[in-house]
Design a protein that fits this description.
alpha+beta, Rhopdopsin 7-helix transmembrane proteins
């Protein structure tokens, strides 16, 4: 079978292999960090591996499209070659959708793990459920776009097909909507944290990486408009195919970057570690009804948030130790330490107990003074 290699097709492959390789390297660093440094692999880590696998499958199908005329004018492509190209194209659409949907689910599972507030968990499960139903629809509609299926790659076959233009634009619009929701989901929680401004802005910047996915989704929508109105689809499909590959892999990159901080802190401590920034602390005395918390006496709960010298490479970067108000909901006799992105949270409890009961010396039991001393706090 004749194959056609065009400069436009080679350009699309070059861009795709660059972004797929970068996504693979960053995802590998994420898994290395989570599995061996942090030692806390989660559901979001396994799901991102599924997304990466489908991204590579999409790249393989794109290679098939290029080697069968993508980027060449329709009039210059033999009928048999065009049919093979369309077969590869038909297979690539649901693969692209599966990779992108699974990446979004990985991000939401990461949110659910990091932000332990009930409101955030419910919101994440709600959007995960929506993505599950929407993902099933978009994958099935992509595979069964035509009845019979062969009509997709062979227009001479009797049957009917769904309106591709309406399907593509509706799917793209929903992707842009879900990208926007994923971008804004963590912002209210991050803004409410009682942290120094630099640490807060750094956290917001990390979770705002999803904005790049939103940008690529919008740019891909523009390329879909071109091919939807094209009379030369094999020539104009290069833009849509390229942006689809970029979108899948940029999503994987943005989902994986927050999980690589511990590795980068070990590799380049002078750049990514915050140890040299010194301590910045704030101590809060917890009270109830305007009075210090007490329990059988006088109990002082001191919560100290210290930034700058936490060894971030030894900890999982969670926000679970902090509530949105920056306070703690419980206290303990032992100091509790948590670290998130170089921020160490320490809770110390000092408890003093006094007794006003009458002291009676009992020769058989020994000195009451010794008894009090023995059981004092």
């Amino acid at each position: 079978m004749t194959t056609l290699l065009t400069p436009r097709g080679h350009q699309a492959l070059a861009i795709s292999i660059v972004f797929t390789t970068i996504a693979t390297l960053i995802a590998a660093v994420r898994i290395l960090t989570r599995a061996f440094l942090v030692k806390q692999m989660g559901a979001d880590d396994y799901v991102i591996l599924v997304s990466l696998a489908f991204s590579w499958v999409f790249f393989g199908l794109m290679v098939g499209e290029v080697y069968h005329g993508m980027g060449e004018h329709y009039r210059d492509i033999p009928a048999a070659t065009f049919k093979t190209q369309m077969l590869y194209f038909w297979a690539s659409v649901p693969i692209y959708q599966t990779s992108l949907i699974s990446t979004k689910m990985s991000i939401l599972l990461q949110y659910k793990r990091v932000f332990s507030t009930p409101h955030m968990r419910r919101a994440c499960w709600l959007l995960i459920g929506f993505l599950g139903f929407y993902g099933a629809w978009t994958i099935i509609s992509a595979w069964a776009n035509c009845v019979p299926l062969a009509k997709f790659w062979d227009p001479t076959v009797p049957g009917f097909c769904l309106d591709k233009k309406a399907l593509w634009f509706s799917n793209s619009a929903i992707h842009i909507l879900t990208d926007t929701l994923i971008l804004i989901y963590p912002m209210p929680v991050l803004k409410s944290l009682q942290l120094p401004k630099k640490q807060k802005f750094a956290l917001i910047a990390v979770f705002a990486l999803g904005g790049f996915v939103l940008i690529t989704s919008i740019l891909r929508l523009k390329s879909l408009l071109v091919i939807a109105n094209s009379s030369d689809p094999t020539y104009d499909n290069v833009g849509a195919a390229t942006w689809s590959a970029v979108e899948c892999n940029v999503a994987i990159i943005c989902a994986s970057l927050p999980g690589t901080r511990a590795f980068l802190s070990k590799l380049l401590p002078h750049i990514f570690s915050t140890r040299s920034n010194g301590y910045r602390s704030r101590t809060t005395r917890h009270t109830r009804n305007g009075n210090p918390l007490t329990a059988n006496g006088n109990t002082q709960v001191l919560a100290s948030v210290v930034g700058g010298r936490g060894h971030s490479s030894d900890y999982d970067h969670d926000l679970e130790a902090l509530s949105p108000s920056g306070s703690f909901n419980s206290y303990t006799k032992e100091p509790v330490k948590e670290v998130f992105a170089g921020i160490k949270v320490t809770t110390n409890v000092t408890q003093e107990s006094t007794s006003h009961s009458k002291i009676v010396i009992n020769d058989d039991m020994g000195s009451t003074k010794e008894l009090v001393k023995k059981h004092s706090f």
